[in-house]
């Protein structure tokens, strides 16, 4: 049953076996599995409930509906835009549908360096297989490859780089190019049309427009929580909701879960809460061609460069890599927002927008950030210096190299200084000159996690290998907050597979 906030009374009380805070890849997957096991599940979502009829493909409308903070939240110093979902289905409603299994080398690192148990390749493989069946994960055929993807694949192969088809979670894709505005065709296999819909059919109650506020404790046990029912238009409280439950799971996402747990006053008992944060900050390079590219049509990333996924070192000295490199897809309004300049010069660029393509790199954070509360307000720290800065600059270099190989006539970094180059011999000097100080570049943070990482005990982590918060009997976390590090690929399948493990632990505790 989908219950929207405006349908609730001024004060509502619910009871269930399990209450889940959040409806993205973690919460939705957990809700489906637990309802399949016969449990009474309530899912609380702070954002609204929207369906294909609401996805009008107008960027400003959809940014306000499904993006957290209406797309305006940034890191504490303004360097990085925080990208997260605020709707039933979470960020999967606006994601690109890239669907990678966690690389075996990353799972091995988590086991060897962080002691993770029960989340190895053997344990996760059956979950990956089910997820891929349920979400129709496959490599897109050539009819889904737009001009930017085709150029990138050809150029990267010519450079001898490892480039592969990107696994896609789609069924009957209409090639509209509006993945980031929610799929108006229910073709992108987001949590909204997969796990949420199936959990709903099995009897789960999904309640939208509700912000979880306060856990209710009895010793080490959480007996329930208090929440505010929000007016969707103003985001102001219009009522209250109290939920009593035998088990409580926080699945509010990489930004939301650490923030919620910090607001429960758990930092003193769990000093690693809010620490070890990552978010894959992503540098972009725009490219101007002498022929139409129309980057906002068809699927975003049919091909991806994996050559540099793992960082390479000469001894202790960083050499290159530490990111995935993808074709970029920006719709016209977003393109206008990230292109450099203003006034007449910006208008001249936008007049050529059909000729613009580009690339984006997902940085595998090497320097950890943090989430903290300051006067009750969330502050997110994302370091762009140190090794992160070296990786960002190398990602810019490689993007320039491959874009010139695609035949681009001019490259634009989109920075405040409006750095542009027209020849490969200008790459090194241009990249070295770019200022990484706050407010000088356009970076987004699409894949947050790590702020409630998994480990052996409170001396090194926030949750145990059973996803239970240390020192509690029945409080669990099921989202990327538990990852020890970034998974080095799009995290959606990793989140879902980990959530199946979490569901087994919650089920065993009931």
Structure explained in plain terms:
The strands form seven sheets. Strands 1, 2, 3, 8, 9, 10, 11 and 23 form an eight-stranded mixed β-sheet that branches. A five-stranded antiparallel β-sheet has the order 16-17-12-20-21. Helix 1 crosses helix 12. The model has no long low-confidence stretch (mean pLDDT 96). The two termini are 22 Å apart. The chain is built from twelve helices and 23 strands. The chain is an alpha/beta fold and 510 residues long. The longest helix is centred in the last third of the chain and has 20 residues, at 386-405. Strand 14 and strand 15 form a beta hairpin. It folds into two domains: 2-50 and 100-134 and 192-265 and 488-509, FAD/NAD(P)-binding domain (3-Layer(bba) Sandwich), CATH 3.50.50; 142-173 and 279-445, 2-Layer Sandwich (Cholesterol Oxidase, domain 2), CATH 3.30.410.
Task: Summarize this structure as a short list of keywords or feature phrases.
510 residues; FAD/NAD(P)-binding domain; Cholesterol Oxidase, domain 2; eight-stranded mixed β-sheet; five-stranded antiparallel β-sheet; 12 helices; 23 strands; 22% strand
């Amino acid at each position: 049953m989908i219950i929207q906030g405006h349908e609730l009374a001024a004060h509502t009380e619910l009871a269930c076996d399990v209450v889940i805070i959040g409806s993205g890849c973690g919460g939705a997957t957990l809700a489906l599995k637990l309802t399949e096991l016969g449990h009474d599940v309530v899912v609380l979502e702070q954002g609204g409930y929207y369906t294909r009829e609401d996805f009008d493909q107008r960027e400003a409308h959809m940014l306000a509906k499904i993006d957290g903070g209406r797309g305006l939240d940034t890191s504490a110093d303004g360097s990085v835009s925080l990208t997260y979902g605020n709707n039933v289905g979470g960020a999967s409603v606006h994601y690109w549908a890239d669907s990678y299994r966690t690389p075996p080398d990353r799972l091995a690192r988590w086991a060897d360096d962080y002691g993770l148990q029960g989340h190895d390749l053997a344990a996760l493989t059956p979950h990956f297989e089910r997820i891929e069946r349920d979400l129709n994960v496959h490599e897109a055929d050539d009819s889904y490859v737009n001009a930017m993807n085709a150029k990138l694949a050809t150029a990267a192969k010519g450079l001898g780089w490892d480039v592969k088809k990107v696994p896609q979670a789609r069924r009957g894709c209409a090639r509209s190019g509006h993945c980031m505005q929610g799929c108006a065709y229910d073709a992108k296999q987001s949590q909204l049309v997969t796990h949420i819909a199936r959990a709903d059919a099995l009897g789960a109650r999904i309640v939208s427009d509700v912000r979880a506020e306060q856990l209710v404790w009895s010793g080490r046990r959480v007996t329930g929580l208090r929440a505010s029912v929000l007016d969707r238009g103003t985001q102001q409280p219009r009522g209250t909701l109290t939920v009593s439950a035998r088990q409580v799971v926080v699945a509010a996402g990489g930004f939301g879960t650490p923030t919620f747990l910090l607001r429960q006053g758990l930092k003193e008992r769990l000093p690693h809460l809010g620490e070890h944060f990552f978010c894959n900050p992503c540098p972009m390079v725009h490219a101007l061609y002498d022929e139409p590219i129309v980057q906002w049509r068809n699927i975003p990333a049919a091909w991806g460069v994996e050559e540099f996924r793992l960082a390479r070192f000469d001894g202790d000295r960083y050499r290159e890599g530490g990111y995935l490199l993808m074709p970029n897809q920006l719709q016209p309004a977003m393109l206008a927002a990230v292109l450099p300049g203003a006034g007449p010069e910006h208008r001249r660029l936008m007049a050529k927008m059909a000729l613009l393509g580009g690339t984006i790199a997902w940085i595998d954070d090497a320097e950890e950030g943090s989430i903290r509360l300051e006067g009750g307000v969330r502050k997110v720290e994302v370091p762009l210096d140190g090794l992160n800065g070296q990786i960002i600059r190398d990602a810019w270099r490689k993007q320039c190299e491959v874009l010139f190989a695609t035949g681009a006539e001019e490259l634009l970094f989109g920075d405040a200084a409006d750095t542009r180059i027209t020849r490969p011999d200008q790459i090194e000097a241009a990249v070295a000159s770019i200022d990484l100080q706050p407010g000088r570049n356009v970076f987004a943070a699409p894949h947050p996690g790590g702020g409630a990482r998994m480990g052996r005990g409170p001396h090194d982590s926030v949750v145990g290998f059973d996803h239970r918060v240390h020192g509690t009997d029945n409080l669990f976390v099921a989202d990327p907050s538990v990852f020890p590090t970034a998974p080095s690929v799009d995290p959606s399948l990793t989140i879902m597979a980990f959530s199946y493990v979490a569901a087994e632990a919650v089920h065993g505790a009931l």
